[in-house]
TrEMBL record, chains A, B:
Its cofactor is FAD. The active site is at E470. This is Acyl-coenzyme A oxidase. It is found in: Peroxisome. Keywords: FAD, Fatty acid metabolism, Flavoprotein, Lipid metabolism, Oxidoreductase, Peroxisome. Pfam families: ACOX (PF01756), ACOX_C_alpha1 (PF22924), Acyl-CoA_ox_N (PF14749). Residues 17-132 form the Acyl-coenzyme A oxidase N-terminal domain. GO terms for molecular function: acyl-CoA oxidase activity; FAD binding; fatty acid binding. Belongs to the acyl-CoA oxidase family. Residues 324-485 form the Acyl-CoA oxidase C-alpha1 domain. InterPro entries: ACOX_C_alpha1 (IPR055060), Acyl-CoA_ox_N (IPR029320), Acyl-CoA_Oxase/DH_mid-dom_sf (IPR046373), Acyl-CoA_oxidase (IPR012258), Acyl-CoA_oxidase_C (IPR002655), AcylCo_DH-like_C (IPR036250), AcylCoA_DH/ox_N_sf (IPR037069), AcylCoA_DH/oxidase_NM_dom_sf (IPR009100). Residues 525-701 form the Acyl-CoA oxidase C-terminal domain. The lineage of its organism: Eukaryota, Viridiplantae, Streptophyta, Embryophyta, Tracheophyta. Gene3D superfamilies: Acyl-CoA dehydrogenase/oxidase, N-terminal domain, Butyryl-CoA Dehydrogenase, subunit A, domain 2, Butyryl-CoA Dehydrogenase, subunit A, domain 3.
Length: 709, 709
């Protein structure tokens, strides 16, 4: 029945003030109100309906996204929304679109890498959307290894232009969102070649580079600031002066601003279907090839490096590390998105687990709600706790980013490597856990979770690329490991900072073992954090010791890569746990709010401890007995979460529109709505399916031999 | 270039005879040849093209599947294929269709549960496909708890008919494959009510049942064979004689054999979109409601229980446990399918990992193949090993099934509970690992794995329901746990059999710890199996001890469910490991074949040991040092797998058609084919996207205010 709240009894069980928790989740009352306003704006606007999305063909789907994007932009303009409001509006529209890249990558990149002059020229155009831009870095052949990009940008001093070219098939730009159909411009990353044009194919280039290498004495492709000049006398009696530089970003117009047709020399299109039905297929991830496309010199972004009119390459005194600042920013938003995606999935699975009853009926009474099964709790509640943990670590990363920015402005680069490693690691940890967590939530919903109308399949399909873009999650953990190994090796003379500060206490962490003796002893933030510190420190040190056995450190690193990744993950988990603990040391208003969060914090930590108990035991920090006590405490904690479970997911304040799930409906009215929705499938348009007379009737009537198949 | 084998160098590295390994994988030369013939038959027939599948609308998709099913059936008839050949043919067509349920569930259920007479009547019709049947058990409200089904089948002695009825919304049949559009008949499971008609709604039924409960003294819904009679005088002055029986299966005709329209009283349709694009959406999983539909008495399957003309309910002397035999059969096929799905994913990821190069170029030479990175190996090779492990345990399960069948025919039920627990556990273990493994393979392919043309998204989407159907994987592990706990508690007086035989040596397994001292010591099947036995036995015993602390064993079981599931998994892993080891004690012909399989067996076991080292350490069987040695050995083993990796996946003998993956192409010609495929997306039909003029141009031209959105 409409209007009835089938979860009312669950909501009555809550032991904390849900409204206050909403504020704690949002970060502040203002943040809550802003986000709430935008959520309702979208939810109440039929233009943003999304139920039919998965049934659309690719073309209809894309057109529909263009429509929504336009409608969204109209609202932003008409209602004069602030940038912050616009961001939330786009988030709640909940449909990947070219605008994500335009606002999220193209504009920030120009802001970060453009000169004042360039910003003055391009930003107003972009901010008014008179041009639409995307971020074209990845190529068919290179993603993780950005240094290996093959697209060339050769400076032609005669014309004062760069010639952008795709010398090989694998140099085709491939993946950039918004590139395929929507963008008029792209920020293209390419190998800068100054001092002469280079027309070689890959093989020739390789010869050239290898000659350069022997000349310079170390691999050119690995050096960033070294600019080399080399003279080659080729068979064609051609003299080439070659400057091998870092990849640079170039603003390249792709399509006419009049008729939107690709400009001469540009081949551009969509790369085809991706995972899922609607999901990320609303985005025109694109392919792009250049055939000697010319752009003015001033369309190279020149904040950190310039090419002069005369064809001279110059590094400005703004250090290249500055660009890391943008990376910290982007990855910080990815962590924050992880908490959103995971909390959505958890909200759906939690509500449905309270609605769903299976087994355990006594005397003909109702069956047990599946949320009451301990196995269900032990799969679901750690994810609920993770959603909160990621929310708070994301908040902290936002602070870290502003801190880094301020320091950079004051020319203080000291914390940058640590901040960079930390965001890389947290991006990897949170996105992997979220992707796996969404799928676990789907399984927690049994068969019905497999229906698109549960919302979970599409959420999974649209989310998982976060594990890959902005750095493959394994490659990122290897970067963290590299930083940890370095930190350990320098302990003798360099004080570790930020999230690695605990390494400064390595001697104590190696020596002192856990002192927990009872189940209750585990309810102690100090004991918890120390356990995670000791495990992470011991694993890093063990890796360091193993590495020391290798003559060639690079070989050692390669050989031990798996162990290094485990150590890096241990370090990142420590960060999440300690930021959660730190959060709880702050004042958090509202009846029962802090207490409920404390329970979740313990759940998160002890769940990890149980899952990775092998590492805690192997490093000798824990005894088996202590691990058992932790596990027992965990069970008790689940019972404490149970009455609050629905209220804890209500606190995310998600509208039914944003959730997009019949199983996760706020009112719990699942079955009638599932039943209704089924009939909307096109297959139910007719009683007898299209194709029956051609392909089934002949079988039933044993007349297949004369049938036309 | 066409015709070039880009993986030829990889193939040359193989240290074993690939053709012999193909036979080992297939099980026998005959099996290999049969499967190879069917694979080629499908691959070379353009009627089975599947590249465009994900781009079709639901209706086109379904029609296309009907066409393929008809074409497949025509081949089967025309070529007079055997049942075995037909099974492989359907497998290689690689598209879920109503025929799967017809042949895989409907027919076997009649074979298992029908009387001789019933089989004589229905099987010829079904085998000639003059009728199409599905298996309708699950309802909107009940899946795992089959005992809770609400559909009623009330016997009307006057008419000698059953009245099939859906008394509640949640009693609607929901999920059965082939039900929505294709089937003419369904095998419907329903609560049998004999001795009077029952017209109550759920509430009334509940009252009735609770009265029955108090009369009988224990929950009626839990007792199987007890038939109770009770007399109620309702308000309507109606006297009801009520036989509460086990759910029974009924053959119900759903659609006219003339025009395929649903028969009177039948509401039937498709339940809507499921995960993925093509994937399982080729199947018409259906919803079905009955409004007092009448069927003749002899359409209840009566092998184990009968209702007589007079309305008497009788159990025959064929025990109900016999039905478990069918379950063992079906789950055995699921394990075998797991090895197929996982090996497909692994084949794609392995080949692509050899093609893909990223980082590590020296002197301008080619970059490192990503398969050479230890992290890539440590993620990929255990999955490769798992595919082989599941293949062999599946083979063994097939043997187990024939053994069980023979025993049942000889009225020996002694091994049935163990066989039942064992197949339940192996179904759970292999399908969970396969689902996770496919997704890991996708991630191993970086960005390109996210493209549908990689084959991996659709493989994942179509595979994952295997974790849910035929028993939710967690519910199944709980069943295994129950069996283990029982086995442990009876150790004093009952010799454990089959896969639990090791429990008979529990004292030794509790006492003796691992004796490994060097890295090489781990290359010892005895040491490996003993480690897994000790861990499983110790975990089961620990659970038993914990359970003993509870007054009410059921409460204890519920409270400790998570730990019990872990113990059950440990037991199941032991089975897989020991069946792999046993396989290697057989004669396996072919140069290097056995040696290569031995390496994989060690990889599988030591990978599990590392992953679950917490359990091996916590139970005290291993020391941290021994765990480290195992991990070191594992690294060495990866290096031994490396040169054989491509050959090991070639040995699956999959055609490019069956793989359906550009990344997994046999010839490794990935990039040109990815590039070509992109242009086939409908979005690339025109240079300017549909919707541009309406929804993008007005933005660029700042004319949104006057645009029609
Ligand atoms: C949906 C989506 C949207 C995207 N949007 C954009 C965009 O807007 N703009 C853009 O420029 N790009 C975009 N990308 C591309 C994305 O950034 C790359 O896919 C990503 O950087 C991963 O690189 P890759 O695909 O080359 O993976 P690979 O590097 O090829 O990864 C393959 C495997 O190799 C492993 N591997 C690679 N290097 C190493 C190493 N050194 N050590 C150990 N293992 C290694 C990886 O772990 C992985 O398992 C997008 C991608 C997707 C999926
Ligand atoms: C693609 C697909 C095809 C199918 N085909 C058919 C078909 O042809 N015919 C047919 O009859 N059915 C079919 N089904 C239905 C399928 O058999 C059920 O979905 C399955 O049995 C799981 O039951 P459920 O959906 O009720 O899950 P639920 O039991 O509702 O599971 C929900 C959650 O509760 C948990 N849970 C449930 N009980 C317990 C317990 N006692 N202890 C602890 N945890 C518990 C589960 O672990 C899960 O996390 C199909 C399903 C799918 C997805
Ligand atoms: Ca589709």
């Amino acid at each position: 029945m409409e209007g009835v709240d089938y979860l009312i009894d669950e909501r009555k069980k809550a032991q904390f003030d849900v409204e206050a928790m909403k504020v704690a989740w949002a970060g502040s009352r203002e943040a809550f109100e802003l986000s709430d306003r935008m959520a309702k704006l979208v939810a109440n606007d039929p233009a943003f309906e999304k139920f039919t999305r998965p049934m659309l063909s690719r073309k209809e789907l894309f057109k529909n996204t263009l429509r929504k994007a336009a409608h969204g932009w109209k609202l932003i303009v008409d209602l004069r929304l602030t940038e912050e409001e616009a961001k939330w509006l786009r988030l709640y529209i909940d449909e990947p679109a070219y605008t994500d890249l335009h606002w999220g990558m193209f504009i920030p990149a120009i802001e970060g890498q453009g000169t004042e002059e360039q910003k003055k020229k391009w930003l107003p155009l972009a901010r008014r959307m008179q041009i639409i831009g995307c971020y074209a870095q990845t190529e068919l052949g290179h993603g993780s290894n950005v240094q290996g990009l093959e697209t060339t940008a050769t400076f032609d001093p005669q014309a004062d232009e760069f010639v952008i070219h795709s010398p090989t098939l694998t140099s085709s730009k491939w993946w950039p969102g918004g590139l395929g159909k929507a963008s008029t411009h792209a920020l293209v990353y390419a190998r800068l070649i100054v001092g002469g044009e280079f027309h070689g194919v890959h093989g020739t280039l390789r010869k050239l580079v290898s000659s350069l290498n022997s000349a310079v004495g170390k691999p050119v492709s690995n050096c960033i600031a070294v600019v080399c000049i080399y003279r080659l006398c080729g068979k064609m009696n051609l003299s080439i002066v070659y400057h091998r530089c870092f990849n640079e970003g170039f603003i390249v117009q792709l399509r006419s601003l009049e008729d939107h047709l690709p400009l001469p020399g540009i081949t551009v299109g969509d790369i085809g279907l991706k995972f899922g039905n609607g999901a990320y297929n609303t985005m025109d991830n694109g392919v792009l090839r250049f055939d000697h496309v010319r752009i003015p010199r001033d369309q190279m972004l020149m904040r950190v490096a310039q090419v002069t009119k005369e064809g001279k390459f110059r590094q400005s005194d703004v250090p290249r590390q500055l660009l890391y600042g943008t990376m910290v920013y982007v990855r910080q938003t990815i962590v924050s998105d992880a908490s959103k995606a995971l909390s959505r999935a958890v909200c759906i699975a939690t509500r449905y687990s309270a609605v769903r009853r299976q087994f355990g009926s006594r005397n003909g009474g109702p069956e047990t709600q599946v949320i009451d099964y301990k196995t269900q709790q032990s799969r679901l509640f750690p994810l609920l706790a993770s959603a909160y943990a990621f929310r708070f670590v994301g908040e902290w990363l936002k602070w870290l980013y502003t801190d880094v920015k301020q320091r950079l402005e004051a020319n203080d680069f000291s914390t940058l490597p640590e901040a960079h490693a930390c965001t890389a690691g947290l991006k990897s940890l949170t996105t992997t856990a979220t992707a796996d967590g969404i799928e676990e939530c789907r399984k927690l919903c049994g068969g019905h979770g497999y229906l698109v109308s549960s919302g979970l399949p599409e959420l999974f399909a649209v989310y998982i690329p976060a594990c890959t873009y902005e750095g493959d999650n394994v490659v990122l953990l290897l970067q963290v490991a590299r930083f940890l190994v370095k930190t350990v090796s320098e302990l003798g003379y360099k004080q570790p900072v930020g999230t690695t500060a605990y390494m400064g206490r390595v001697a104590a962490l190696m020596q002192n073992n856990c002192t927990v003796r009872t189940v209750e002893d585990w309810l102690n933030p100090g004991a918890i954090v120390e356990a995670f510190e000791a495990r992470a420190a011991r694993m890093s040190v063990a890796c360091g010791r193993q590495l020391a056995k290798f003559e060639n450190p690079e070989e050692g690193f390669a050989e031990l890569a798996s162990d290094l990744v485990e150590a890096a993950l241990a370090h990142c988990q420590l960060i999440v746990v300690s930021k959660f603990v730190e959060k709880l040391q702050q004042d958090i208003p509202g009846k029962g709010v802090k207490q409920s969060l404390e329970i979740l914090c313990y759940v998160y930590a002890l769940f990890l401890l149980h899952k990775h108990q092998g590492e805690f035991l192997a490093t000798g920090y824990l005894t088996p007995k202590q691990a058992v006590l932790a596990n027992e405490q965990l069970r008790t904690l689940y019972s404490k979460v149970r009455p609050n479970a629905i209220a804890l997911v209500d606190s995310f304040n998600y509208t039914d529109h944003y959730l997009g799930s019949i199983l996760g409906r706020y009112d719990g009215n699942v079955y009638p709505k599932l039943y209704e929705a089924a009939w909307q499938d096109p297959l139910n348009d007719s009683d007898v399916a299209d194709g029956f007379h051609q392909y089934v009737q002949p079988i039933l009537k044993q007349k297949l031999h004369s049938a036309k198949l």
